[in-house]
Amino acid sequence: MITSIFGKSKPINFLFCIAIVVGYFVIHLFSVEKEIDANMLTGEIPVLILLIFSLFMVDFIVKKNNLTEKNDYVLLLTTLFLGWFPSIYSNIKIVAIYILILLAFRRIVSLRTLNNIKQKLFDASLYISVAMLFDSWVVIYFIIIYLGIILYVSNDYRNWFIPIVVYAGAVILYMGYQFLTDQSILTNELFTWKLNLNYSTTDTKRIFLHLIILALFSISFVVFLVKYKTFSSQKKLAFLLSNSLFFIGIMYVIFSQDLLLMTEILLLFPLSISTANLLQNIENKRISDALLFLLMIVSFCFYLYE
Length: 306
What we know:
Blueprint: H1 2-6, H2 11-31, H3 38-43, H4 45-64, H5 73-82, H6 92-109, H7 117-131, H8 142-152, H9 162-180, H10 204-227, H11 233-255, H12 268-280, H13 285-304
């Protein structure tokens, strides 16, 4: 039943997904018994708006670049995966990083058209540079820019210097701001990359989340490899970029100093793409429905046991 609804691209599906995200937010409010006050309006409502905007971005990127067949599986999966993070509304920082990475990926994957190449590289570099203001480890996402250059526009040597120039410009502007406000540059978090590889074996919720992510992506990746030869050259490059985005996200989760159950949100988009392609290759729709229904249960369970 679920596959029959989201197996075809329809505008109503987007409204369904918005309703689910709003439902998550309402459950969150009741679960922590929050009062509607100025702090919630200025802190958590903007996060809700950003998450809804992220759904629009996900839908746009997928359909514009034909990352799946004509369906709304990625939109649905991204929505369900957001349910894994019931406390996300109190952390606008990681949501802002998530949005900026989506915007950067949109520009990189669109390099395939070979139009406005330097503008797209500039935009992607700027988005990631801005995201670095929230967490210095976001710098590793410059890997996806250079991978895009290698795959699409490596013939022009000037393209290789654009991310460096944008990054340097952002750092200089930020240092200027620090100087004018009499803040220390040397001790600023933007210029410190501390390795924090401690992994808690007592956080069963996070371990369970990691096992789900690992299982879903592993199965999807195997199917991707099996079907690889059947894809067009453009799809191969796009899937290579999205899978690379997943592995870069893993690096960020490992290295980031933020040990809260939220950094994994950066894995949602590439995980949704790989899982959506898995669903497309399951001929028995009952199995697809069962998988989606199971993901729904897991999603709401994370909220119920916040």
